[in-house]
Amino acid sequence: MSPAEMAALGWDACDVVLVTGDAYVDHPSFGMAVIGRVLEAEGFRVGIIAQPDWTSAAAFAALGRPRLFFGVTGGNMDSMVNRYTSERRIRSDDSYTPGGEGGRRPDRALLVYAQRCREAFKDVPVVLGGIEASLRRIAHYDYWSDKVRRSVLPDAKADLLVYGNAERAVVEIARRAAAGQAPKAMADIRGTALMLPRLPEHWDEVDLSAVDESSPGHRPRAARQVVRLPSYEQVAADPVLYAQASRVLHQESNPGNARPLVQRHGDRELWLNPPPEPLTTPELDAVYELPYARAPHPSYGEARIPAWEMIRFSISIMRGCFGGCSFCSITEHEGRVIQSRSEASILREIEAVRDRTKGFTGTISDLGGPTANMWRLNCREPEVQRVCRRPSCVYPDICKTLETDHGPLVALYRKARAVPGVKRVAIGSGVRYDLAVRSPDYVRELVSHHVGGYLKIAPEHTEPGPLSHMLKPGIASFERFRAMFDAAAAAAGKQLYLIPYFIAAHPGTSDQDMLNLALWLKRNGFKPDQVQTFLPSPMSLATAMYHSGLDPVRPVRRAGPRVEVPKGERRRRLHKAFLRWHDPENWPILREALKRMGRADLIGPGKHQLVPAGGMRRG
Prior knowledge:
It is a single chain. By secondary structure, the chain is an alpha/beta fold. Helix content is 33%, strand content 14%. The strands form seven sheets. It has a ten-stranded mixed beta sheet with strand order 3-1-4-5-8-9-13-12-11-10, with helices on both faces. It has a three-stranded parallel beta sheet with strand order 21-22-23. Strands 2-14 form a two-stranded antiparallel sheet. A hairpin with a 2-residue loop joins strand 12 and strand 13 (268-272). Helix 9 (239-251) runs antiparallel to helix 21 (541-548), helix 15 (407-417) packs parallel to helix 17 (440-449) and helix 20 (511-523) packs parallel to helix 22. The radius of gyration is 25 Å and the shape is globular.
């Protein structure tokens, strides 16, 4: 991280310099640490510039000219999601910064950092990566500017973009660069994108840039097909074509059958290679068992980094998610195929936490990942998985070829608890309850040993309309899980509570849907404190719904059914107020809405009523 450290190592230069919007925490939950250690294991000398002063190029030249390339990321979060709330207000803090201080990274960090790298050493290639690159790899709707923006690759004037699980791709880029190959010659690496002056020869172009065409899955396939998306100019001008581009991108997301995509940007073509193949269990084990310091860089002293505090005693056991929730960006980044570590590797990391992490008192705070209970769950039929184009393995119903046996996970939990020096193993990742109800033994094990006072869980809504656009199961599935949870808690002699999470103002949600949800919350005694208003993150299916008013999960038609989209500050505030029906600050806006909806009967002191009348106090 400094010339002094380079001198101590005897380095005259770095092969690769990684620039990140996060503080440097050398832990496998931080993407830049993973990429740095993976490159180091391949023999490359890696420098890291963390949260640089972006007002000039000086900080970007601090480690000298990298021999191969700059690797640039906004950090573990998209820089706009990190900096702004769903109401577009600036956040006062940043969990990835020492002291939790806000404002230590620029808006659209990839663009700014890439520009400064060019200013520092204009002839050094720039490679973009991380979640901000993944979610902005094609033309995308940007909530903060309320417009469709170009792919971040040409806007950053970078040479390559790496998306998804990037270990293999970054190593391949480094090896080829070390052999003297220019970035423009690296057009065949999976999980990458680059700009081309024209399409390469000998490719059969499948044009899906128009609507009212058949699904890409129903077309004859040639050996070398590339799928054309609507151009940037088309999707920027026509929300219907934006929905079409979203649909095609998501249908071409299975590494087993995805084809390259091409999207015209002005006079150049954005070439997007198919997603990376999932890492095998031995490969994933090797990544997580690299020699991480498992701590923030010493230069931060005793400064507290909130994101590090949250994960310092947790263990990632898998990657990916096959849930396919339309509002979530996990699948666009990590993919739908579950990549699981071995039991032995996980247990070794628990021992490493015990032995090497300062402050460990015997509690592992989490064994999980994007979800708590998808470890080792995958399609039982690899041939089916390779050709599947379903956006979700669990919606509208759990696929008959999906493995749902939680037995191996129960065995892992028991072995983790038995590691000497471990007093307790908590489960902090979200439990996918529609899977959990298939394994009563798992629910009993979870409740008996791994839940403290409460368990967070995310039904997201109660009404069929919003749930169908979220690709989430009906509320009956949650009710079954709650009954099993309560029974297991009673059998264990424990007083435990479920804390359900819900989303306000999601596409497909009416005012009546939110009223029904509020009444359900009241009947069931739930008074949510922290509630989430839908935030249209780049490239998600729900964001396409928000922008276009169409559902790209279904074939896109200009005359197709419209999706109701709650927009505007007042309506989004009303939907959030329904979730916090118990807060007196929300009663005026709720009274007004109930009268407008013809439900003034719900205003008053009765148990069946939602809010008291004006001037009344609720005890």
